[in-house]
Amino acid sequence: MLLKFRGGLDSIVIKILLGLLIAAFAIWGIGPSMLNVGNQNVATVGETDVSAQRLFNEVQNRAQTMQQQFGGQFSSNEIITMMRLDDQVLQQLIAQAAVTQHMKDLGMRATNEQVAKELLAIDAFTLPDGSFNRDLMDQALRQAGVTEQELLNDIRDGISRGYLLNSLTNEKMATSNAAKALYTWRAERRKATMINFNAEDITDFSAPTDEELQQYYEDNKAGYMTPERRSYRYILATPNTFADHVEVNDEALQQDYNARINEFVQPEKRKLQQVTFSDEAAANAFLAVVNAGTDFVEAGASVTEFTAEEINLGEFTKEDLASFYNPTTAEEVFTLSDQGVSRPLQGIGGYSIYKVSEVVPANSRSFEDVKAELAETYQKERAIDLMYDFQKDLDIELDEEPNLDALAEKFGLNLAQVTNIDARGLGENGLAAVTTAEEYAVLSDITKRELGDEPEIMDIDPRDSDKGIFLAELTEIKAPEQRSFEDMKAEINTTMIAARKLEKAGELAEQAKARLEQGDDAIKVAEELNGISFDAKNVARTADANSNLSQNIRTLIFDLPKGQIDFERSAGNAGYVVVRVDEVRPGNPEERPTQVAAIVTELNAAMTNEIFAQYQAYLLNEYKPTVNNQLKQQLFNDQPIQ
pTM for the complete prediction? Predict the structure, then answer.
């Protein structure tokens, strides 16, 4: 409540902890409605109560604020339901009550002088000359539905809560040395020699005999069954179903164009590359190399720890560049032409040199240019609205008549039929009978159903209800049957050959490892064993978008000490890769002070979260909240609270 008037206490740590505390208690919820509750309590934490009246007031205040933000498109009750504000606010009040109870037990209580000082500093209660005005306070309290005593209690609790939470942590828990050690580990780069043995390339293996194929079939007979097949029918309703019912007019499209003007009128941009040095001399030396004709990215990657991905910054407007860096950098960079390179520009991280890899011209699209695009979006959005209206009618009809034939006929929808399909969406001919995302959603639901289950409205995508709904009815289940050896012989033969090739690749990898340990040349070993030798020169712990190393091989490279050799399966079990670590280059934190500082902040946040998690566990164990379920289910209906 105090936060509503003042904006909270000043400490950033306290703000973070309060936010975490509110989120952490998200295990209690209440349902929507409202009644005459008098002085009843909707929750109790220890000996601290959460009144139903206060919960109602807080929820209504927040709903009204959001209603204004939404431009009045939704009523307060609709917002409460859609946003589950009752749940959110109750969780906050329970969290506050737990901390308040702990403060009581600790004997922490702000003095009257401290409360008065905070009260007099609330902006909503002061005149333009800075003096406190009781009339303004009374008016604000009436609008918020809060009594003066509740406000004073909140202020007192807020002050005490600030001291309590501030005592749990501070902003300097992580040391620079710890951050440097972590950076050294994270930024480590390694060089490795590798030999790849692809199983598909193996020719020296024994083909399985008929007897071996028959034995393999007998040993794995349970795995050679026809899949269960199901038949079903369904009704599908998506935004496309209602698109033809949407009327598009120029006035509405013009309003949309004005609201999205920033999308259609874009200033000139620069695609930038950047390399930063700790001192100006190093930056000038790099600039001389680039001006002599060396590629900017290659030169930057060779003399710094920056990767190609880090050197390529992306697109910036002049305003963006001034905001992210500084106005001087923005001014100079935007005087450069395509492929132009700047002088060393000093910033927080050191001396940076920028290259314009491309000039992206300004782009202005008129209303007429984008009218068709706007119409398509307008039609899609209004079709979604119509779809939601349809769902309400469908729900009513479904309660009265849960029959797909009747529903399809009443609403003019197609009743689709699917026969003898397996869980992968394949028909008896082995071809895909299910091809769209909507059809797969229906199939996924039908695999969980039993014969006789009544159809119910289901979202095509539970994460996005805008995609549409369906009703499905299972009509037949065809049980699995044993497949004969003759039917499976070719498949078994392929499986056994693949396994023998992979086994042979593993044997070759073992031989290659032994020869490398004896000092043989990797290229020679690869040629004689029919493998492929290659070097990985600058391997990072974390893969980037251009990496083709599988994670298990990357892990092996960083698990092995320098000079050690081992092998692992390649990606997708396609073979084996032998790895010898040739060089280990730890990261140098002295060259990246900005990144080290960021790690200090990261560690402090992690430690704060950990400390708070322990504090939360203590509160949950010490004060187990109880919720009046009957009362909470009766809140927020259309009856005015007394």
Answer: 0.50
